[in-house]
Amino acid sequence: MFIIKHKKIFIAISVILVLLSMAALFIFPLKIGIDFKGGALTEVLYKTERPAQADLDKAFKNLDLGSVLIQPTGELGYIVKSLDLSEAQHTLLLKTLSEDGKYQLEEKNFNSIGPSVGKELTRKAIMAIIFVSFGIILFIAFAFRKVSKPVSSWKYGVMAVISLLHDVIIPIGIFTILSHFYAAEVDTLFVVACLTILGLSVSDTIVIFDRIRENLRNKLGTSFEETVGRSLDQSYKRSIFTSLTVIMVLLSLFFFGPESTKYFALMLTAGMFFGTYSSIFLASPLLVLIEELQKKK
Predict the structure, then answer these.
(1) How far apart (Å, rounded) are the C-alpha atoms in residues 72 and 86?
(2) Are the C-beta atoms of residues 51 and 102 closer than 8 Å to each other?
(3) Which residues are CB-neighbours of 83 under 8 A, at least 6 positions away?
(4) Quick one: 108 and 172 in the same domain?
């Protein structure tokens, strides 16, 4: 019941974080990576062994070549995506890949590439998110149709979508700051992270809503506020511990994984944290707040 009694404080915290994230997005524009802008693709094959990807990532960070994405291919090869390169930059790239001649390599391919995430794909992704949001509202409205009092079943769906927006906007705001101060760039992994956050967050919210539904059916509590409060008391530990196990894995990936997935892991970590927060401290308190506003009308 502690969460419900102080619901306005927790809702205010979410509103402030969302507003700060949106402000950061406008003040510090995101840096767009080569997946969106296009650039050059270099494929190399090493003669006997290849250097560690982490060593190459570190070496390229000290060079003036812009964003460089390194992907292993086969047992001895790398595919390198970069911005368009001059002849001198191309030579420097190959020299870095060989670690100044320490590793013998053969350049298999070098050509210009178009953006893998084009405007059309971006537009379709946005449309898909919109349709999915409406789908969530309709699904929850149908699933909760038998407990449509005192709060209409479709409003559960709206609260779930509001929580989803909260869970995505705040990590994007964090990424915006990283983009400005640490040159993090928006790439395919960024898009994947956002979509993954949506999936993980809505699942947690629906689990808590389902507990509220069961307690409303069983008439646990003398008021809607008490029922929601008891439902949270019964389910918040499960949500927190489940999220903590995922966050521990993601932090391991951040600290010990390759350089190319660090921001991806950080985005997912932030998404899991704020997704758990919204499921417990935002979505359910908003239901109670709506019910209170309905009484005043």
Answers:
(1) 24
(2) yes
(3) 34, 37, 39, 40, 65, 66, 67
(4) no
Q: What pTM, to 2 d.p., does this model score?
A: 0.80
Q: From first to last of its 297 residues, what are the pLDDT tens digits of the chain?
A: 678 888 899 999 999 999 999 999 999 888 777 777 777 888 898 988 898 888 888 888 877 777 787 878 878 888 888 878 888 888 888 888 888 888 888 888 888 766 666 566 667 767 777 877 778 778 877 877 776 677 787 888 888 888 988 999 999 999 999 888 877 778 778 888 888 888 788 888 888 888 888 888 887 777 888 888 888 888 888 888 988 999 999 999 888 877 778 888 999 999 999 999 998 999 889 988 888 887 776
3-class SS letters over 148-188: CCCCCHHHHHHHHHHHHHHHHHHHHHHHHHHHHHHCCEECH
Pair 61, 127 in one domain: no
User: Residue 168's domain is classified under what CATH number?
Assistant: 1.20.1640.10
Query: What does DSSP assign to residue 62?
Result: T
Q: In one letter, which amino acid is 139?
A: F
